[in-house]
Amino acid sequence: MPATTTARRPPADLAPLFAGVLRSEARKLATVRSTTWALVAAVAFNVIIAALLGALLPGHLSAHQKATIDSVRVSLGGLHLSQIAIGLLGVLAVTSEYSSGMIRATLAAVPRRRLLLTAKALVLAAAAATTGIVACLAAYLVFQAFLPAGDAMRTTLADPGVLRAVTGAGLYLTVLGLLGFGLGAVLRSSAGAVAVLFGVLFVPTLLAALLPSSWQDTISPYLPMNAGDTIYTVRPEAHMLGPWAGFGVFCLYAAAALAAGFVLIGRRDA
Questions:
Q1: What separation, in Å, do the N-terminal and C-terminal C-alpha atoms of the chain show?
Q2: Would you tell me which of 88, 112, 113, 143 could form a disulfide with 54, CB atoms 3.0–4.6 Å apart?
Q3: What is the pTM assigned to this prediction?
Q4: DSSP the chain
């Protein structure tokens, strides 16, 4: 055969292929019912809990407590439930096709497995970031609206660290979703990936609380949840990392899971 027919396609051909895969994965994620429920739940948890905290909490705090409390972090109290919804979404974004067997058809259509996984991760990140930032901003504004007029817990987005904390909370949810996505790509099991995800988040923090205080000060700042929490904290706790340093450590956990997923997807059968 002529050399021109056997030569590989130039790398430029990857651009339209990747664009098509992105559109396909975006449509796929948007049409799955679990996606809608997870994103709606993430917003609802944030906003409803913020409204309840804004209306009920001030009456149970002293003037000193109001002056020292991190009211921005309080307004994002629903994040602890929202992270469950986004974490589940991240896992299901990759494991749902394995459980249904549709991954075989997907890989037949897109044999470039790492390109496919990249498209899936980008689509998930865009959905999680948009929803997370909107949900956290809405929660903050609702919390402020429900606070009594002139309350000491009131802040504005222009105050130091507030805008970073609110948007950082949305970024935290995004990275959490990608951590779940990476674990899903590694384990290819929804139940297994969910168990590992929330085990990694909660168990080390609980175990660290049993250690001597000197050990806690050394280890705790680098645990996944403790490191990630710093990005939406305006008044950092003692011995904890700074907001961006802690967020960077949290990103490394997600990057490690994603890297493992990218390596394994090219070495295993569907």
A1: 32
A2: 143
A3: 0.90
A4: --HHHHSPPPGGGHHHHHHHHHHHHHHHHHH-HHHHHHHHHHHHHHHHHHHHHHHHGGGGS-HHHHHHS-HHHHHTTTHHHHHHHHHHHHHHHHHHHHHHTTHHHHHHH---HHHHHHHHHHHHHHHHHHHHHHHHHHHHHHHHHHSPTT-TT---TTSTTHHHHHHHHHHHHHHHHHHHHHHHHHH--HHHHHHHHHHHHHHHHHHHTTS-HHHHHHHGGGSHHHHHHGGG-SSPPTTPPPHHHHHHHHHHHHHHHHHHHHHHHTTS--
Structure token pair of residue 242: 């700074």
Q: What is the full per-residue pLDDT of the chain (270 aa) written as tens digits?
A: 454 444 454 454 788 888 888 998 999 888 888 899 999 999 999 999 999 998 888 888 888 888 888 889 999 999 999 999 999 999 999 998 888 888 888 888 888 889 999 999 999 999 999 999 999 999 999 999 998 887 888 888 999 999 999 999 999 999 999 999 999 999 999 999 999 999 999 999 899 888 888 888 889 999 999 999 999 999 888 888 899 999 999 999 999 999 999 999 887 776
State the amino acid at position 8 in one-letter form: R
Phi-psi category of 155—alpha, beta or left, where left has phi over 0 and alpha has psi -120 to 50? beta
Cβ atoms of residues 231 and 168 within 8 Å = yes
Q: Residue 238 corresponds to which tokens in the numbers above? A: 């003692």
Render the burial of 176-196: b for 16+ CB within 10 Å, e for the rest: bbbbbbbbbbbbbbbeebbeb
